User: Fold this.
Amino acid sequence: MAETIPNGRPESANIDGPTNPMVTPILTDLYQFTMAYAYWKAGKHNERAVFDLYFRRNPFGGEYTIFAGLEECIKFIANFKFTEDEIDFIRSSLPSSCEDGFFEYLRRLDCSDIEIYSISEGSVVFPKVPLMRIEGPVAVVQLLETPFVNLINYASLVTTNAARHRFVAGRSKILLEFGLRRAQGPDGGISASKYCYMGGFDATSNVAAGKLFGIPLRGTHSHAFVSSFMSPDEIIEKSLKHHNGSSVCEDFVSLVQTWLDKLKWSHLLGGIFSETNQSELAAFASYALAFPGSFLALVDTYDVMRSGLPNFCAVALALNDLGYKAVGIRLDSGDLAYQSCEARKFFCAIEKEFGLPGFGKTSITASNDLNEETLDALNKQGHEVDAFGIGTHLVTCYAQAALGVVFKLVEINNQPRIKLSEDVSKVSIPCKKRCYRLYGKEGYPLVDIMTGENEPHPKVGERILCRHPFSESKRAYVVPQRIEELLKCFWPGKSDKTREELPPLKEIRERCIEQLDQMRPDHMRRLNPTPYKVSVSAKLYDFIHFLWLNEAPVGELQ
Assistant:
């Protein structure tokens, strides 16, 4: 959906600033300012340039990436303005020979003449295809490079990581992001919560992220809460009102103890446990008195099967007598597959013996340094876990430190430019381009194709030659059944284009899930996934290689 702006001018007043107030025009590398000064000194600063932002390789050994961070980039340019303090600091950081006129130029600078064309946030994307195309005065666009790369790099990496965890866990499981304490600083924690939710997680433990982004919150208690109790005698206020308000149980702790005795002598459960840890029982009873409608207990402080589980069940059954339904347990150590299966048997035995429909389905949450590999191993072993709390490996992207986003000049003053390298993967694809996704008969995307901006649009049902940008023999004809143009205008500058609306986080999350569902299963699998094809048109292929030969120096043999 596009939002029409009068005269095509972006109304920055309608767009809030970046989530992190540290994202300002000076959140950049020094060489962006030295280049900006050199452009200005040479009179080149207003030359019209086109840059592509893209990445070269999919992360985590996979064959897909989720694009994220666009909204923060738009918020950044909508509010791009140097303060006097910032200008003074830039002046002090550059050589004293820099002329005053340059700082006056910075004082007037904004992004009103910048145009941004981008793939929609939450989309599945692939190497070499521009995620964003940024057009405008070369000095201004150059100043956007570092913040844009910074805002896209981690966002896309952690969203992809979240999506991969969701794929392994399956659609039926609840995924909880618990990574704040292990994240790389406050911004890493806030960003991780936002983008893990975008990538398919259901909730976060991060209260600040819940407030900022409307992400559902989850959390119970830690081992410290359990071990802080010494005995049930510590509980002063023991009364609990029935869920429907009809009566009051004056001694909830005694009711819990009664149920624990029943469980101990149960013929289905007999012998599993004898004496449980009474301080743990006190902690559970106390927590249930505080949160009778949302009781979920961490059961591995002392011994899961001999103490934690029967203590939880005693409290849950006491709550049931008063009209409440306990949520479940959390396992945070040990053999999660075995413990979850034993816990499920325990719940089912109670349902059968005491005639409590649904008790066997009491929720089991697992945490404890989980990652893609452990989720996959649990699936292979067989388990009864309903929800996973995942932290360190998720938010730190432990398996891969960075995505490797790059920002390359592809055109200036309507002249295509190319960056060459002995490493072919680092050769850029020149000129202003249009990008399309071609879909086959089964509804799956087959190939992404880049064309020159002025080439005719590909048409449904017409045969299109798709060429690998750098390998002469890799080519194929495609007859698309559906075509999606990927780059849309999110910031029109002074053009008469309409601006795409920035959707809310929940819509981006839904788009991400929908996009992943459209992918062919062999592109998604963890082991040996099939590479997705990224191509160029025959005309663009010829032009790339013409420009390559034109720009590469000819060697001379002595």
Observations:
- The longest helix spans residues 138-169.
- DSSP finds 17 helices and 24 strands in the chain.
- Residues 15 and 75 are 6 Å apart (CA to CA).
- The radius of gyration is 29 Å.
